[in-house]
Amino acid sequence: MRLMEFEAKSLLRKRKIPLPAGCLHTDGGAADLRFPVMLKVQIPLGGRGKAGGIVEARDRAEVDALIPKLLGASFRGYTPRHILLEEKAGIRKEFFLACTYDTIAKLPLLIFSTVGGVDVEELAATHPQHVFKRHFSARHGLLPHQAREVVSEANITGELMMRLASVACAAADAFLAYDCTVLEINPLVLTDSNSLLALDCHADIEDEALFRHPDLAKLEKDANRFHAETASSDFERRAVEIDRMDHRGVAGRMIEFGGNIGLIIGGGGASLTAFDAVQHHGGSPANYCEIGGNPSVRKVQALTRH
C-alpha cells in the first residue's frame, strides 16, 4: 500500500521529524500559514511537480483560485481529492534519505545522499560518489553511531552531522515500526534559517502487515482518498476480497486481460516469466495473478474457483 504525502508525513510527525507548517485544504488551517505557500496535489505517485501538481500561491486569493483547478485536473492518471498546503521554505541545501530492504543481504538499508530533489535517482546512478549506504538491524534499528558514520562519510561534520543522523535514526524507527518496504524523504532540506525540514515524503507499507496497523488499513479502504482513471474490474476486486480473507500469504494480486488462459502462478518473477512464455508461444492470458508467502488453503481454493 502506497501512502500519499500527507499520510506518509503523519508517520514522520510521530517520530518528531521536522516538517514544514502546513494543512490540508479541507482542514481550515490555511489562515494560519505564512505566504507564499505551496499547493501539492495528493496522489499515490511521484512526478507531481513535472505534471503541474505542485504550484505556488502568493496570497489567499490565489489559493482559492487554484484549488478548484487542481481538484478538477488529472495528474498521471489520478484525480486528487486532497490538496496539501505548506509554507514555502527557503532552501540552502537538499539531501536525500531513504530506508528500504536489501533483498540479497536480507537486512534493512539506509541510503543517504548529499544530492536530493527532482531526478535524484538518475543523478545517483551517474554519480554514485554522492550516495552512502549502511545496513542496520531489523530488531535494534539504526543505531546513532551508525547514522553518524554514514553522514560523516559524506564529509558532513559538526552540528549538522548530528542533526542529520538524528533524522536518519527517526526515519529508520518509522520504517520498522510501520512495516514499510520503502520510506523516502526527498528532499530533506537545510533551510536559509538553518533548520532541517522533510519537504516531501513517500512510504510504501507491506500489504501483509496491514493487519498490525488498523489505522493504515482503514485508509486503504477509503474510496475518497483519490480517484484512479483506470478502475479495477469486478473480477479484480473479487480477487482482492479473497486475498483479504486472512493475513497469511498473497493470493489475489490479479490483473484482468482479454485472453482465454487463466494463470495462477507462485512468485512474482515466475509469474512474469510464465506470462511472457504463454504469449511467446501464441497463447492469450486471461489474467496475471501472483500467489506466494504460503497463503492459506482456503484462499488459494477460493481464488482457483474465482
Q: Identify the overall geometry.
A: globular
Largest sheet: 7 strands, antiparallel
Count of extended strands: 16
**What's the Cα radius of gyration?**
22 Å
Outline the low-pLDDT stretches. none
Q: Determine the mean pLDDT.
A: 90
What share of residues is helical?
Answer: 25-40%
- End-to-end Cα distance, whole Å, is 23 Å
Q: Give the SSE order as H and E letters.
A: EHEEEHEEEEHEHHEEEHEHEEHEH
| Secondary-structure class | alpha+beta
Strand content: 25-35%
* Number of helical stretches of at least 4 residues: 9
Protein described:
By secondary structure, this protein is α+β, with helices and mostly antiparallel strands. The chain contains 9 helices and 16 strands. It has helices at 5-14, 60-71, 120-126, 144-153, 158-177, 214-220, 234-243, 268-280, 297-305; strands at 2-3, 22-24, 37-41, 54-57, 78-80, 83-87, 91-102, 107-113, 131-135, 180-191, 196-198, 201-205, 226-228, 250-256, 265-266, 287-292. The strands form 4 sheets. Strands 1, 7, 8, 9, 10, 11 and 12 form a 7-stranded antiparallel beta sheet that branches. Helix 4 (144-153) packs across helix 5. The protein is globular, with a radius of gyration of 22 Å. The chain starts with a strand and ends with a helix. The mean pLDDT is 90.
